[in-house]
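Q: I have 134 residues here and want to know how they pack in 3D. Can you give me a structure?
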Amino acid sequence: MSNIEPLPNIDFELFSKLDLRVATVTACEAHSNADKLLKVTLDDGTAEGRQVCAGVKAWYEPEELVGKQVVIVANLEPRKLRGEISQGMILAASDLKDLADSDETTDGGKPGPDERNVVMVTIDKPVKPGSRVS
């Protein structure tokens, strides 16, 4: 059972403003000015594609993401993260690691309270980049 508090409900009109899309990772590298970020180049179905910075460096090697199809928030306001433009957000799920399931340890041989599993939201069958997610 989870102790996670749900966020307040939103109406459908607000939800419908999110533009969730499938994108294919075409390139990925460590961000040169950030310890936790990867710089990810995406084919989002547009001619120019897009770049996002994703805080998943601790859980993914850049080369293992190339070719994966991920779900992005395509209409998130672009912003600079440590000098690099991020034009959206890749969706991911996270949870605290179970003590029994973890080989990674900190003080006393037990995982620290903030050690998490992080998993990007991916597509199980190929679809065209830019496909809407609903």
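Q: Anything worth noting?
A: Confidence is low (pLDDT under 50) at residues 109-113. The chain is about 5% helix and 35% strand.
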